[in-house]
Amino acid sequence: MNGNIAVVTDSTAYLPDDVKNHLRINVVPLSVIIDGKSYREGEDLSTAEFYEKVRIAETFPTSSQPAPGEFIQLFETLKSQGYDTVITIHLSSGISGTFQNAATAGDGIEGLNVIAYDSELSCMAQGMLAVKAAKMAMENESVEDIIKELDKIKQAQDAYFMVDDLNNLQRGGRLNGAQALVGSLLQIKPILHFDDKQIVLFEKVRTQKKALKRIEDILETAVQNKSAEKAFVIHGNDPEKGETWRKHLEAKFPEVVFELSYFGPVIGTHLGEGALGLTWSIK
User: Do residues 191 and 160 make contact, with C-beta atoms less than 8 angstroms apart?
Assistant: First the structure.
């Protein structure tokens, strides 16, 4: 283990506990606010509890980023543990100020080289970058090589989401009311993706089945171009639906390793229950 490089990410990477513990990845939580009460994601409430609370909430949930002070505290702790470099990897700067707060906090720590890295995505796409950085740090790779590898993976990453209900996007300011109403009436299933760090509409599809098929077609192209070797099916509080799709994809693309992940509270506030996503990258 290279004692000099620590890896930090935020809670929206949705990394399993055993992975975080084994690779010593430090996680700073974002928060969700439900009916005026703030909960730190993954610490104060579980994903299942979040979706339960949202169902009976009187107001639409919102999310908030960690304050710079939280990063300063963690970075100071890591410095006291003997680390001289921190690579801190965060959800897209286009949808949250988390990356900026981490960068700002890092600038203020004397004697610690803090490199803030914008994943430009979120969820397990961001998680894959944190895992790669931590594995390379454990293998005593240099900072330059780690960043080079992260850039390479990021170039080959893609992520597409299908939301079950347009209301969350509309209430979260992602879609205007008229569009949401028309979408619900026509049963439009929007496919979303990240473009230039923002979540944008990729295509409107009429049914969930067609939306999933469209995402599969995009994956097929990536597989043919050799840029998909590991993929995550991501579900919004519907593990059965996620697992069904994962098995289907596994049978269709035997050369790709598929795992199951989830949309936790913060991303769930925007995408809503029942959302499905697929993200992939090179090994």
Answer: yes
